Amino acid sequence: MTGFADVPLSKQPMTDNGRPLNRRQPNGRNKRRGDAAGDMCVRLGMMQPYFFPYLGYFALIAATDEWVVFDTAQYVRRSWMNRNRVHSSGSSGWKYVRLPVAAADRTTPIRHMSIARPNQVKDDILRRLDEYRLARAPHYEATMTFLDACLSQISDSLLDSLMICLQATCRHIGLSWRPQLFSGLPVAAATGTKRAPGDWALLTAIHLGATAYINPPGGRRLFDPAAFRRHGIRLLFLEHRLPPYGPIDRFLPGLSIIDALMWQGAKRVRQLIDDYRLTDASGNTVASSPTAVDSPRIAS
Fold first, then answer.
1. Residue 136 lies in a domain
2. Residue 256 domain flag
3. pLDDT tens-digit profile of 172-202?
4. Do the beta carbons of residue 94 and residue 87 sit within 8 Å?
């Protein structure tokens, strides 16, 4: 039996206004006011789950209404899926904290990966963060208390542990996050279908009734803007702007959110996350605040 995701995008049934007939209607609580005519805007983000990622990852969450965790993607060794960088007094200025993963085939998806020695993870990670105490980071105690509670919930499942850490971090900084797993969506059934990487985002946006899809700028080459336009979906890219924080001689951009929490605290980190701009596929700025993307002043 052929499913929705198996039908080429150009041949899927459409309504008069260019929308697919079999889109799932988004949850009403996630709808946002769109243009002056009263249309509703639903902004979608979709990423692999990362381990205490950098602030830009959370900026993407803040800019979206619906979030899909791409858990069927292949696990990539030595990636942000199980490790991230924090401050170090060494010459490089940084070092890794990580979730050690058990041996697995190279084609194993994230959702099937296991953590090696999960009972040792918390102590190993907290020990590697002692340099923040030595550096007298002002929010060391509060951040360590948060991390202790979060890492105490680590299980032998990499996916479950990443979800726990992401959810706990969002809660800690006051960021709303209602994720759903890609593996639980009907479009995931097309695992045997050959697709370009950007197609999964478009198929998911169509299914969830999104009117905008937002991605980090590094993925620009993966997407076909014309395909999104044909389905009435705006393709946008988020560029996070991060000013230096903490001691200037210790600041390094792109470190884990753990570093920002140590130096800035949860409240200030939440403010830093909201400093971004949204651009279209050509690189033109279309918005620079969490609500500007919905403004009627922005051309479709």
1. yes
2. yes
3. 999 999 999 999 999 888 655 567 778 899 9
4. yes
